[in-house]
Specification:
This protein is mainly alpha-helical and 352 residues long. The chain has 15 helices and no strands.
């Protein structure tokens, strides 16, 4: 979560809202394409999945920025991990329990619960299918946090970024030699490079990027759309491998580079995107339940025969509303409570 009183990161905050919205639209279009009233071409449905790549670049940027704040000591690895795990796990566990409840009452019968996927889902470990499908991105987030926390031992911004990049590159190269299957695929995935792109961006002064803001934004948007249209994809789930990093990751880095110099405006759209950015994590996790409901309605009711060009915006707005409510009612209070517990714990010797 980006502090709202930090004007430097208002653009990043708004971009988080855009990225979350892209993912919701992407999944809504995927569900709608299973109906007789579908309207979206595959390349357009596919393009929204690039919201994840924007998130990954933002994550790399924010980790460096928050760990090395001006006029503050570098963050200690243990404090960094506590903050990040509190940010990720408590609300995710709440959503996971809700999803498991749906399983137990008879929904999601095609995805049965097993001891393996329950354990892997709770801990976000690689190797098993996750109960909440979209949590695959959180696996990569947590892994990046661990590598970055170790690199923080260097106590230098530049060294931390370089060590992180070298460590991830080494893991990507070595893991296929040590094992095979899903675990090897996880650790050797080029998508890890996208975190590094964001980390490198955090080393560049914002004023150096400012003259190129419009160029970066246009190039990034054009790159994502062109790649979605021209690069062959096995499905609308997303591009794969290096094609994803080059086709979406690099354009995502351009968009993030442009957002560093976005300013807080008085327009309703800018304010809405900023609020949506606040709630982006809640929206990302809770929209899955909206997709389950939407898919059920398409299959079980006459809604599937309606023109989905009208339903997609309605479902998207409904997911956004639920996500923002979940942020205010559950995610934010839960995170604040856990942070207070962390701050008052005996081991919290250094305030962060």
């Amino acid at each position: 979560m980006v502090a709202k009183n930090n004007s430097e990161l208002v653009g990043i905050q708004m971009l988080r809202g855009v990225a979350a919205l892209l993912v919701v639209v992407h999944h809504t279009l995927e569900i709608s394409n299973g109906s007789t009233g579908s309207f979206s071409p595959d390349w357009f449905t596919l393009s929204g999945a690039a919201g994840v790549d924007i998130f990954f670049v933002i994550s790399g940027f924010i980790m460096v920025y928050s760990a090395f704040r001006p006029r503050r000591d570098p963050m200690r690895p243990v404090d960094f991990m506590k903050r990040r795990l509190i940010r990720i796990y408590p609300f995710y566990w709440l959503c996971l329990l809700a999803m498991m409840s749906l399983h137990l009452v008879g929904f999601m019968r095609n995805h049965p619960l097993t001891p393996g996927n329950v354990i892997h889902s709770f801990l976000l470990l690689p190797g098993e299918d996750l109960i909440i499908d979209v949590a695959w991105t959180l696996r990569y987030e947590v892994f990046f946090y661990v590598v970055f926390a170790v690199a923080l031992l260097s106590a230098s911004k530049l060294r931390t970024v370089l060590i992180t990049i070298l460590a991830l590159a080494a893991i990507m190269l070595v893991s296929p030699l040590l094992s095979s299957g899903e675990i090897s695929s996880f650790f050797s995935s080029p998508i890890l490079i996208e975190f590094c792109l964001g980390a490198v961006l955090a080393l560049v002064p914002a004023q150096m990027l400012r003259p190129w803001t419009a160029v970066f934004l246009c190039a990034g948007m054009a790159g994502i759309l062109a790649s979605s249209l021209m690069i062959p994809a096995a499905s609308t789930n997303g591009l794969e491998g290096w094609a994803r990093v080059l086709g979406w990751g690099v354009p995502a880095a351009c968009i993030v580079a442009s957002s560093v110099n976005w300013i807080r405006g008085s327009s309703w759209l800018g304010q809405a995107l900023e609020h949506l950015g606040d709630a982006s994590y809640s929206l990302y996790l809770t929209h899955v339940f909206g997709m389950i409901a939407y898919g059920f309605l398409i299959k079980a009711t006459a809604i599937g025969d309606w023109p989905q060009v009208y339903m997609v915006p309605l479902v998207t707005l409904g997911c956004c509303a639920v996500g923002m409510v979940a942020h205010v009612v559950a995610e934010k209070p839960l995170t604040q409570f856990m942070n207070r517990r962390r701050a008052t714990a005996p081991s919290a010797a250094v305030a962060t």
